[in-house]
Amino acid sequence: MQIDADEAFSTEENIYAALIGCYDAIQQQHYYGRNLIIVGDIASDNSIATGTKIEYYSVDENALLSDNILVEGIWREIYTAINRVNYMLYKLDDVTFLSVDKMKDYQGELRFLRALHYYNLVRLYGGVPLKLLPTLNTNSSNFLPRSSVQEVYNQIILDLEFAEQNISNVLPHKATIRSTKALMASVYLTLGNYSTALYYSNEVLSANSELEDNLSELYANSAEPSREIIFYVPFTASDKNRMAEYHLPNQLSGRWENSPSQKLIDLIDATDERKEFVAAYITLSDNQRKYYTKKYKDLSTGTDNVIVFRNAEMYLIRAEANYMLDSVANLNTILDDINAIRNRANLPDIEPASIGNSLIGLIDKEKQIEFAFEGKRWFDLIRTGKALGVVPTINQQYQFLLPIPQSEIIANPNIDIEDQNDGY
Fold first, then answer.
1. Using CA atoms, how far apart are residues 242 and 296, in angstroms rounded to an integer?
2. pLDDT single digits (tens) 385-406
3. What pTM, to 2 d.p., does this model score?
4. DSSP letter assigned to residue 351
5. Residues 6 or more apart from 217 whose CB is under 8 A from it?
6. Residue 48 main-chain phi, psi, to 5 deg
7. pLDDT tens, 230-264?
8. CB crowding 125-162: b at 16 or more within 10 Å, else e
9. Ranges under pLDDT 50 in the chain
10. Measured between alpha carbons, how far is 28 from 30 in angstroms, rounded to an integer?
11. Is residue 215 within 8 Å of 280, Cβ to Cβ?
């Protein structure tokens, strides 16, 4: 639905349409519509480039240039999403006819979205321009220098604290109090603030700790998704994504651009029910197997939901936070959370006597398998610093970040080549 800018804030109906436009921005192809998710796995040890897109091979090899289409596209489309949020927040200041509760809810949802956008940017690129006002013209004053990583995180937390106090929406395809707290848990885990990460993961699970018994239901393209899902990006035939097309093998009419690595395949136990979704395969005429994920399967209409947060992640954030706070005192609690995920996958409990010194390794393993092809593995590896020892193509720490796009350096008078990330 297209609304003229002059009319977009004249009625409550039009304001709601503008809000939906802010959510639509998440669906862009370089964002949750495809490439943010693919980059989150293909840069890691989870998957490999197997198709025809050269830009994916550059990510797989961790040999990126600043003009790579993915480097440029993810940056551009996240800032497009930020600008929509900033514009709406700016215009809402002049709206007088909304109820107090409705105004708070809209502002809270928008600030959750802005926090999510900046969280993705800062983890991918490091310090970025921190735009909190809309770009209304082409004036050079719209271009900002890079803020520090800490400044970006400070704003993320401010936005989430506001969202937590003001959102009233409860629908999981839009921002909720639970999705705000889930994002808080993830942010604080990334920052190494384990006590606060523990608090927020507990908060999320205290309201609903359900794990979907049937994995097929978890990955179904339902208008009423599993109660395990905290926040997701829905797609319809009119705004479809191409996730299935890019993951299914050619023999199933896909492009097979991104497929499971042998390391990931070997990591999954034969009886693990997640294997069917993470490392399914077809057998070719020469008896070779072609592996692929079945988390995305709607090739014809592209209506696969893209999950951003779900309860399983909160279990494993809680387990890691408890481990980092006191792995001995919290051992049984940690194992309860790990075993909840394992039991759902038809795996037996890990017993205290069997873990040795590998408890954090068990948490890492469950995360790697559980969220394969959901775009999270790379962020876990760079957050923990393990990418350097785990991903064969990572041999220097500068590769933990993407380069600042060449187009931004050319267009932005406040960012020049000296401001580029080290190593690029």
1. 9
2. 999 999 999 999 999 999 999 9
3. 0.97
4. P
5. 226
6. -135, 155
7. 999 999 999 999 999 999 999 999 999 999 999 99
8. bbbbbbbeebbeeeeeeeeeebbeeeebbebbbebbeb
9. 1
10. 6
11. no
Answer for the pair 69, 63: CB distance below 8 angstroms, yes or no: no
Tokens representing 176 are 């909720």
Q: Are the C-beta atoms of residues 335 and 353 closer than 8 Å to each other? A: no
Measured between alpha carbons, how far is 385 from 17 in angstroms, rounded to an integer? 42
The enclosing H or E element of 409 equals: helix 406-411
> What is the share, in percent, of the chain residues with pLDDT greater than 90?
93
Backbone angles phi, psi at 308, to 5 degrees: -100, -50
Full 3-state SS string of the chain: CCCCCCCCCCCHHHHHHHHHHHHHHHHCCCCCCCHHHHHHHHCCCCEEECCCCHHHHHHHCCCCCCCCHHHHHHHHHHHHHHHHHHHHHHHHCCCCCCCHHHHHHHHHHHHHHHHHHHHHHHHHHCCCCCCCCCCCCCCHHHCCCCCCHHHHHHHHHHHHHHHHHHCCCCCCCCCCHHHHHHHHHHHHHHCCCHHHHHHHHHHHHHHCCCCCCCHHHHCCCCCCCCCCEEEEECCCHHHCCCHHHHHCCHHHCCCCCEEECHHHHHHCCCCCCCHHHHCEEEECCCCCEEEECCCCCCCCCCCCCEEEEEHHHHHHHHHHHHHHHHCCCCHHHHHHHHHHHHHHCCCCCCCHHHCCCCHHHHHHHHHHHHCCCCCCHHHHHHHHCCHHHHCCCCCCHHHHCCCCCHHHHHHCCCCCHHHCCCCC
Dihedral-angle region of residue 64 (phi above 0 means left; psi in -120 to 50 means alpha; beta otherwise): beta
